[in-house]
Amino acid sequence: MNKKANEKGKLLVVSGPSGVGKGTIVKTLVSRRTDVVESVSCTTREPRAGEVHGREYYFLTKEEFLRRVQEDDFLEYDEHFGNFYGTPKSFVREALKEKSVILEIDVVGALNAKKAFPDCVLVMIVPPSMEELKRRLISRNSETEAEIENRLSRLEYELSQKDKYDFVIVNDEIDMAIQELEKIIDQ
User: Residue 158: pLDDT above 60?
Assistant: First the structure.
């Protein structure tokens, strides 16, 4: 899925540890700009409070997700924390005709997306410290203590992959992180 002549936008892949603020950064940036859209991924996990099918994710059964894998319907997909996540190719192709597209996906998915779409730009959002990341995860009140510890256990692996990214943004101050991501889009 290399960049085609009819594509106006660029594909950015944003990832980083759970709780680092990547969702807030991406959603704020997308709300400010008409030339950028966030890709909606598919997942087999249950919706969190307030999440809507087709807005945050397309919530699929495991069987439906695996059928779509067999049909080569995903730019990238991965399984973690016992659930599948994937980016539908059709959404990305259509959106790139008019806008830049941001994928908010995990490190494994990002590296797979880079293989499938070498022109994509990888951006990792990192926390200012481990303590701050843990505070953010706890304050979300959306996961159990065991789930938080599971997410923190992935931190070392995720951060070990940052050299494979084109850009690394430290989310110490949210407005500055948004501005840094915006500069990357405008390059």
Answer: yes
Distances (CA, A) of 132 to 21, 161, 169, 172, 178: 11, 20, 15, 9, 18
Q: What is the pTM of this model?
A: 0.81
Contact assessment for residue 112 and residue 76, using Cβ atoms and an 8 Å cutoff: yes
Locate the DSSP E strands across the chain. Answer: 11-15, 36-38, 41-43, 57-59, 74-80, 83-88, 100-104, 121-126, 167-170
C-alpha angle 67/69/70, rounded to 5°?
65
Neighbours of 45 (CB within 10 A): 15
**Using CA atoms, how far apart are residues 112 and 106, in angstroms rounded to an integer?**
10
CATH of the domain at 80: 3.40.50.300
Number of domains in the chain: 1
